[in-house]
Amino acid sequence: MVATIILAGIIFGFMAFVIGKQIKKAKNGESGCGCGCSGCSSANACHGIKIKQK
Predict the structure, then answer these.
(1) Rounded CA gap, 51 and 9, in Å?
(2) What value does the mean pLDDT take over residues 18-35?
(3) Residue from 45, 43, 44, 27 nearest 35 by CA
(4) Which of 47, 23, 24, 27 is nearest to 35 (CA)?
């Protein structure tokens, strides 16, 4: 019983850390995937980048 509570606390703590990190990155204007947006097909959806069509 105690081990289950400790394990649940660790898992929820890790989830809170990851969510907090994603919120901080979003507030700083960083991308969520960690990659550059130059080759990303979804760059327009993330950052509103206008893609020139030929």
Answers:
(1) 45
(2) 79
(3) 43
(4) 47
Task: Judge whether 49 and 43 are in contact, CB under 8 Å.
Answer: yes
pLDDT band at 26 (very low <50, low <70, confident <90, very high): confident
Closest CA to 19 of 1, 6, 49, 11: 11
DSSP H stretches of helix in the chain: 2-27, 43-47
What is the percent of the chain with per-residue pLDDT over 90, rounded to a whole number? Answer: 39
Domain spans, the chain: 2-47
Q: Rounded to an integer, what distance in angstroms lies between the CA atom of residue 37 and that of residue 22?
A: 17
pTM exceeds cut of 0.90: no
